[in-house]
Amino acid sequence: MDRTRLARMIDHTLLRPEATTADVEVLIKQGIELGAYSICVSPSMLPVKAPGLHVAAVCGFPSGAHTSQVKAAEAIQAVADGADEIDMVINLGLAKAGDWDLVAVDIDEVRQAVPHPVVLKAIIESALLSDEEIVLACRAAQDGGADFVKTSTGFHPAGGASVHAVRLMKDTVGHDIQVKASGGIRTLEGALALIEAGATRLGTSSTAAILAGLG
User: Is the pLDDT of residue 22 over 80?
Assistant: First the structure.
């Protein structure tokens, strides 16, 4: 793993609710200088000028408890404002209740609102779920048309990404869709372990510190 390749796997992220437009401008500058794949921001921060970077915006964030119609409208507006990737939080209440068909419907409503080539990532809050629930959440993401299944918002008290969860997610989805690890990724060692487990994208605000480990 060289520095350039790792950087191109990172969504350089700023989702603190108190973040300002000046903070986002710094994020963009860092993302360009570090060679990140994208920036990931709150939809209220769009549009942005981020030459050379993809732009991801979150949707239904961070609870996932918004109605499907609200999530779809939020995604449509974010794409109209320049996002080419949407990271949506699944309905966690439906997931914990075992209503997996409705979880898939929720994802599908956003997918229909922002069809390809927009990239759709489904955030499942893996630390909140049992292994069986992680598997079923991944299948719901596939059924709903997501391009990625993503571990975490980074805001839930249950925790963020783990090697175990990423490996289980990758084993479940295979090559059909991709896995994004996010939440608590702060070191090169941690980043590489998640990639080894099957993540093809990382969401982190610690991009500089992670890449510094590769010189």
Answer: yes
